[in-house]
Hints:
This protein has 339 residues and is α+β, with helices and mostly antiparallel strands. The chain is built from three helices and 22 strands.
Amino acid sequence: MSAVRRCAAGVATLLLSCVACAEDAPASVLVKTQAPRRGVLPDIVTAYGMANPAINGGMTLSVQAEGRVMRIDVAAGQTVRAGQVLLDFRLSAAATSTYEQALSALKLAQQQQARTARLLAQQLATGDQAAQADKAVSDAQAALTALEKENGGKPQQLIAAPFDGVVSAIRVSQGDRLQPGAALVTLTRRNGLVVTVGVEPSQRARLKIGQPVRLEPLTEGEPALNGTLIRVDHLLNPKTRLIDADVAVAGELLQGEVFRARIQTGELKGWVVPRDAVLGDARGDFLFQAADGKAVRVAVRRLGGDDDTSVVDGPLDPGRPLVTLGNYQLSDGAALRQE
């Protein structure tokens, strides 16, 4: 029996030793890996903005005379053709009187010119008198022409669209009495809209005229558009504290539509890795590679990327798998097992 007891005691001791060894052994972490690869991604500056009239894409119509709005024939947002009537404007009595006085002055000067010409033919007037009569007609005609250019001259005027476009805003209401130069209607050319985006001041140096831009509407279901960077401001927008930049597109835009703009400023070359594979701590950015069942920490420098992918620079070993999932549980030298 003593021999049996000694044998049982030895077995128990062996089992306890095995259990202790199992408890002391470090647990491995299940990870997912992929082969490292080098590649190229576009270097993107992301900004947000809205479709607005370009600097030369619109026009505000006005009449340089006092008057009253008798009728409005269009609504804001309406598409119009060149020559289409926008509103009916009637000059005030004072403005009409000024025009009639200028017209009367021209008729009187022409009559005097004709009379002087007859007297000159009869040798009853001098050449100087004829020249003065001609100048009087010229001055009266110039004054009348100036009035007609400013206010059209006619007491009742139909204000028409000077080009094909969209009514951006109607600045008046029917029946309004207006002073000279008051804004009536703002028109935007059909192709006169751009997307104005706000860029962080720190990113401005990366922007150059002519860079390609991908415009993604924030309205669900709308297709993305391709554009070109055509203007970059040199001062901060006082409201947004951002740098305004304009993007032109070949297609038509809806004024007020909001976009995410992805401006391609160049290319990023390096190790192309999943965004979540790159971690960071007080020592900087890093990732893990697998070597002989152990995690190897590799310091890297993040060059850029997008929502899913990063481009990094660092001493990666192309022969070691890159840890892409499970890396948050690892430390340098930790045991791991791959899926």
